[in-house]
What we know:
By secondary structure, the protein is an alpha/beta fold. 37% of the residues lie in helices and 20% in strands. It is built from ten helices and twelve strands. Strands 3-2-1-4-7 form a five-stranded mixed beta sheet. It has a five-stranded mixed beta sheet with strand order 10-9-8-11-12, with helices on both faces. Helix 1 (40-57) crosses helix 2 and helix 8 (235-259) crosses helix 9. The relative contact order is 0.15.
Amino acid sequence: MNKYIGCDLGGTNLRAAIVDVETGSVLHQMSIPTLARDGHDAVMKRMAELFLQVIQSAGMKRDEIGGIGIGVPGVLDLDKGEVLFLPNLPGTWPHVPLQATIENLTGLPARLLNDVRSITNGEWRFGAGRGVDTVAVFAIGTGIGGGLVINGQLHLGIGGTGGELGHTTIDFNGPKCGCGNNGCLEAYASGPAIAAMGMKAVSQGLTTRISELCEYDLNRITPELIAKAAREGDEVAKDIYERAGFYLGITAANICVALGPRRIIIGGGVSQAGELLLDPIRRTLRGHVTVMPVGQVEVVSSQLGENAGVIGVAHWVAMGS
């Protein structure tokens, strides 16, 4: 049995893919709106229907599928198969028995995994992390998710909570993070944090291409727009990515001295900035790590794109977790 379903449970969309877990190939996939405001029971029913539909539309039978892996953007109890807290979905899903519900509705075995740990597993097995035994992954988007592979094993920690790299503390006197802590990396280098730096520059009247590109509408400022300005040579925009890369580099430096990763993978939507972000991360690492051979640590972009999560969680289920 080498075909499993991987699912991304997103606040906007549910995405299910049939994955060949031997090659990491996505064979067939479908996406539908989550409609999260309908409540968790309705969402779980839609998920089960989507799984059965993707099997049917692929021309396969249910008994050809080995199981279902679900990447969940929140805190889980992996042993019980429960969702404990989903910060970005209505109702936050406290103690929702997602695993058992999906198994009952589909007749297939199911397992849960945090969404960025799923991405981490996918990139390590089939993407930018192939061939190394210790990897750190940052997924930079609306928040900053993380994941670790240590000595050839996906690191889960207590209940699957290990690897939350976006919530390492950069400055204990810093701004409040969405998680409730002060000064997390996420508050300094996530997509909204980068956009906020651009908004501040424009509102302060600094001379920058960002103003023209957003047509002086602060609501149109995004990390992508700032990256465009930076590539056109705008110094203010370049400095914004320099600062974001510095904060990421400080967290990466702490990971290097603690774990000695051979590769650090930068993914998520903000990673499309490429070298604007990777270069300051590398320079910060070299400037702040002296007790391990930091020159041997590679900082690279992710390779699997939006498929990393579904590939990773399908493979994780196939390997029996």
